[in-house]
Amino acid sequence: MGAQPGEAAEFTDLESAAMIAALNAAREGVRGANPLVGAAILTADGQIVTGHHGGTGTPHAEVEAITTAHDLDIDLTTATLLVTLEPCDHHGRTGPCTEAILAAEIPSVVFASPDPNPLAAGGGNTLAEAGLTVRSGLCEEDSRALNARWVRSLTEARPFVTAKIAQSLDGAVAAADATSQWITSAESRAHAHEVRSRVDAILVGTGTAVADDPRLNARGPDGIALDDQPRPVVLGTSELPVTSFLALNPNTLHLRTHDVREALDELYAAGARHLLVEGGPTVLGAFFSAGVVDEVFCYQAPLLIGPGRGSVDGLEIGTLSEALQLIPDDTETPAVSRVGPDFLLHFATADPGPDSTGLPESVT
């Protein structure tokens, strides 16, 4: 059966090229509750067919690659499947990838890194016990780096956290008179609603909830609600106006706390695995300070507002060397792209940040 998972293995140049293709395919996916995963099928004559996981509820990378290979009438009985993450071995929203691989009669599998999720791990051993040649470790460091923040959220048993910022060129989210609708364009808002549609929950503070009376739902450009909707979440101890959209929505979760970690624990217990934070500057600052922001979408409008409200408050950074580092993230889209007249900046957080657990008492 060849080298088994965890044993030293040798790889051909073609296998290395196929794994690189799988890593590139993985980057076409979206970050969130699930890891970024890519797969490549390497045929006996050197052809490479790829697939990737598109997010929660979509086919896994292995299944997408196998489906494409079937469509192309590729003989899988002499092929090698290369995957950036160990094939899953459990029933979630989709069936185990191990079953799909066995059904496809693929004789050889190479995966880059083991699955850190104990609920899904073990696929390599399952395939090896079924008689397949299973090897691991090819491009392992690249695979681990791709999903480092997801692994951190998994290890901490909290939702993966995406922060959204919509600001002017000089970093303001509101003018001096507090007006803020709309700083960014309709195109940026449409993209933000697309992001909303793929998260489990969307959070604002009670200050934003009272001032803006938001619906916190996901809508298309036509204003009609999309099929997939996040759960609205409000953070803070103040009561909501009884006639507000969020108060009238029975699905709204009101987290009556100022503690970010406590809020994340409650959300995780409620089943949320991907949280979008759209709160005001103080709420955003609290999540950044707590070191729990994994991904940032920043919509930068070509406006200069002057005196106004900055996009993030409360970081307590006294000198440049203490600045929170962000890394450009080119998964899903280029790290910098145009959205209408605006720029969309996509970042991952490079450092977990200061060890902070609470919201300032000014968030009411």
UniProtKB/TrEMBL annotation:
The keyword Oxidoreductase applies. The active site is at residue 62. Binds 1 zinc ion. The keyword Nucleotide-binding does not apply. Transmembrane segments: none annotated. It holds the Pfam family RibD_C. It catalyses: 2,5-diamino-6-hydroxy-4-(5-phosphoribosylamino)-pyrimidine + H2O + H(+) = 5-amino-6-(5-phospho-D-ribosylamino)uracil + NH4(+); 5-amino-6-(5-phospho-D-ribitylamino)uracil + NADP(+) = 5-amino-6-(5-phospho-D-ribosylamino)uracil + NADPH + H(+). Keywords: Hydrolase, Metal-binding, Multifunctional enzyme, NADP, Oxidoreductase, Riboflavin biosynthesis, Zinc. Its EC number is 3.5.4.26, 1.1.1.193. InterPro entries: APOBEC/CMP_deaminase_Zn-bd, CMP_dCMP_dom, Cytidine_deaminase-like, DHFR-like_dom_sf, Eubact_RibD, RibDG_C, Riboflavin_Biosynth_HTPR. Substrate binds at residues 180, 196, 216, 219, 278. Residues 13-127 form the CMP/dCMP-type deaminase domain. GO terms for biological process: riboflavin biosynthetic process. GO terms for molecular function: 5-amino-6-(5-phosphoribosylamino)uracil reductase activity; diaminohydroxyphosphoribosylaminopyrimidine deaminase activity; zinc ion binding. Pathway: Cofactor biosynthesis; riboflavin biosynthesis; 5-amino-6-(D-ribitylamino)uracil from GTP: step 2/4; Cofactor biosynthesis; riboflavin biosynthesis; 5-amino-6-(D-ribitylamino)uracil from GTP: step 3/4. Converts 2,5-diamino-6-(ribosylamino)-4(3h)-pyrimidinone 5'-phosphate into 5-amino-6-(ribosylamino)-2,4(1h,3h)-pyrimidinedione 5'-phosphate. In the N-terminal section; belongs to the cytidine and deoxycytidylate deaminase family. In the C-terminal section; belongs to the HTP reductase family. This is Riboflavin biosynthesis protein RibD. It comes from Brevibacterium iodinum ATCC 49514.
